[in-house]
């Protein structure tokens, strides 16, 4: 005699098969595969930035204005060196990424810096140490500055073109989305850096008056290039809305903020803190530090929680139904 059974006990639960050991797992965020050349370029620029930035920071911290062009104050070339030194941790982290979309919030601003600094150096060639004359080391440094920037800028543009020629995979679910409260803050921070950078780059004679220390035309435009790149990076992270795709940039932001803070602290007597530009600069630099540290914390917390895998979600849905 066959005993009747409950339909719920005879219903066969769908089997959930975990991926086989060693099987390739598709990157959840999709996107374009990161080209080897792009990763190599980031590492090369990281080495150049670390060496050049450290040289600019150390020499200018002593009070001597040292740079590719003549500067009225040592603070401006020191800040340029601090930005170069601070971004290097993010550049060295690019090689660990698998998709272009994981690094573009850092590498797109990097292209802006390389091309922008070269574009600033050429029109201001009359201010270069090689043209104005001076110690041999400064002359050679200014010549190398222009040559290396031109070579790296061209290489960056070629790598960028190659990246966008690669086929793009469909994007899956976001790994760690930005919290809602952070988006207005990032929008204001990114717009502030972008705006002051665009102003210094396009109208250095006018916007240089808002810089709370004495700057020349080349200084103002070079600082504008860096400010513009920082604004693009912050706004790009806002557009990505995925902290998984901003890992290298989250290393660069606090690095730049800390290096710039040290430079400003040592040259504090050179800065007109009573003007509006002084407090505004501090708030913008502090915003970079807070954004980077908070982003790293949110990313670590989101990664520890981890996304719900397909099998767990299916079993949860079956349990809810029964």
TrEMBL record:
Coiled coil regions, renumbered to chain: none
Region (Disordered): 1-29
Transmembrane segments: 41-63, 75-94, 106-124, 136-165, 185-208, 220-238, 250-268, 280-299
Chain intervals with Polar residues compositional bias: 1-10
Keywords: Membrane, Transmembrane, Transmembrane helix
UniProt KW Transmembrane helix keyword: yes
Protein name in the entry: Uncharacterized protein
Phylogenetic lineage: Bacteria, Bacillati, Actinomycetota, Actinomycetes, Kitasatosporales
């Amino acid at each position: 005699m066959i005993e009747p059974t409950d339909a719920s006990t005879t219903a066969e639960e769908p089997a959930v098969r975990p991926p086989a050991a060693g099987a390739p797992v598709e990157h959840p965020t999709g996107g374009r595969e990161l080209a080897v050349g792009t990763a190599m370029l980031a590492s090369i620029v990281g080495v150049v930035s670390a060496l050049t930035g450290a040289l600019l920071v150390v020499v200018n911290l002593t009070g001597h204005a040292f740079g590719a062009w003549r500067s009225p104050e040592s603070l401006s070339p020191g800040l340029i060196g601090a930005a170069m030194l601070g971004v290097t941790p993010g550049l060295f982290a690019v090689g660990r990424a698998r998709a272009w979309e994981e690094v573009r919030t850092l590498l797109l601003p990097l292209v802006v810096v390389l091309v922008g600094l070269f574009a600033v150096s050429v029109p201001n060639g009359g201010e270069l140490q090689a043209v104005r004359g001076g110690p041999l080391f400064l002359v050679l440094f200014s010549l190398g500055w222009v040559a290396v920037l031109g070579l790296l800028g061209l290489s960056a543009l070629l790598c960028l073109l190659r990246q966008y020629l690669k086929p793009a995979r469909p994007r899956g679910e976001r790994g760690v989305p930005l919290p809602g409260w952070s988006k207005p803050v990032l929008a204001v921070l990114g717009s502030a850096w972008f705006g002051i950078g665009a102003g210094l780059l396009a109208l250095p004679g006018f916007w240089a008056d808002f810089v709370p220390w004495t700057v020349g035309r080349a200084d103002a435009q070079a600082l504008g290039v860096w400010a513009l790149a920082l604004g693009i990076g912050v706004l790009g992270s806002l557009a990505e809305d995925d902290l998984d795709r901003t890992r290298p940039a989250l290393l660069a932001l606090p690095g730049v903020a800390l290096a710039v803070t040290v430079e400003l602290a040592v040259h504090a007597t050179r800065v007109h803190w009573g003007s509006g530009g002084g407090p505004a600069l501090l708030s913008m630099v502090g915003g970079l530090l807070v954004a980077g540290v908070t982003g790293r914390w949110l990313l670590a917390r989101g990664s520890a929680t981890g996304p719900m895998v397909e099998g767990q979600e299916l079993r949860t849905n079956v349990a809810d139904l029964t």
